[in-house]
Request: fold
Amino acid sequence: MVKKLHEKIAQFKDAAMIREKGLYPYFRPIESGQDTEVIIDGKRVLMFGSNSYLGLTNHPKIKEASKKAIDKYGTGCAGSRFLNGTLDIHVELEKDWLHTLVKKMLYYLVQVSVLTWRFILRIGP
Reply:
């Protein structure tokens, strides 16, 4: 059974044929930093597979903040917050995020209230 599998694998030539035609898109080395555009084979191309759709991967402020965080915390938490503890930057981020969320919610609630009262006052009972 293993021998048959090896024979089938040896007979598989589709990827090699596609590569010979220059159409094989996998594992092409990127010659620049990850961004919305990258350099591949000396050409500038759009990067649709990246998570950097906002273009922040190479933003100078993000890079500087990352360097500072690495200097203080290392390259990662080495485990989950549940087992290894919560970093102070997690708490700070959550407070900032919650503050922003509450502010936006209050803003929208005020807007809805104002619009509702305007509607009620114009239409009447």
The first strand starts at residue 37 and ends at 40. The beta strands are 37-40, 43-46. The mean pLDDT is 85. Residues 88-123 form the longest helix (36 residues).
